[in-house]
Structure formats: C-alpha cells, structure tokens
Design a protein that fits this description.
Length: about 50
Amino acid sequence: MSLPLHLGLEHPSALWIVAVAFLAFVAGLAVNLYRSYRSGASPNGVSDNESA
C-alpha cells in the first residue's frame, strides 16, 4: 500500500527538521516546568502569592 500524499520523508533534511522541532518542544516544556517550580505554583495553576 503506497501513500497517496508526498510526505517529504525521502529528503535527508526532513529528519533534521523533525529533530530540531522536537528538541525545541522539549526545551519549552522544560522551561515551563522550571518556571512553575521556581514560582512555587500550586498544582491547580494558581499561585499562593496571588490575592483573590
């Protein structure tokens, strides 16, 4: 069964594009988790420092 669409996977640079995009995504998650940890945010996303 052949794919009806051209996915561009036969181009060697496609792997590099996917790898860089994945690393950027993981780096964004890491920065977000680090900032959440440093700010002392509670699990529900509301910090204790904020007044209601």
